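Reopening this one. Same input as before:
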Amino acid sequence: MSEAQQDDKALLAVLGRYVSPTRAQSILVRARRESPGARGATPATQLMARLAEGLRMFCGEADTRAAVAELTRLGSPRKVEAIELELRIEADIARARLAARDLCHALGVSPLVVQKLATIVSELARNIISYAGRGQLALRQCGPARRCVHVEARDQGPGIVNLEEILGGRYKSRSGLGLGILGTKRLADQFRIDSSPAGTRVEVEVNY
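Same output, byte for byte:
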């Protein structure tokens, strides 16, 4: 089930407490279709306004207000605390992966995104431990209007000399250096890396 289907299922569950399942489906379909045409409001606000219009056709004002309040709480983005980790030893890689999973579960994201983010965090943490010796990893939600997780990995290691070759997929290494960076770039929705003899910083965003 896609994320959009999961959202609609949750909305229908609320609507179904006030109208019949058939009417709930009709109200939601019409609201989804008409919301993009409105101006001067966010998509979520537009959708709530259309759902309220549909409910008023079958419910009293009190029930409509109660339903819209429920729907609004359901659609409000979850807020979770940022996570910051110090990476020094091999066990910290597993700790970082678990932290990524915990953050995803708190946000209620899909299993596919959980796996993607956990893989990215594992690769970044492994590179820090293996090649810089120590560093820091931070995970947080993006801004309130955006559905994504931001990951930042920093170290004070020697930097990556052949970074352009690695990112271009032309670098072959028996040690594995570069595979984690390139894999992270391919998995991420946004990717940025800065590397110099003073250290390396990677910033990643994963949408959900």
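So the earlier flakiness isn't reproducible anymore. For the record, The CA atoms of residues 101 and 115 lie 8 Å apart.
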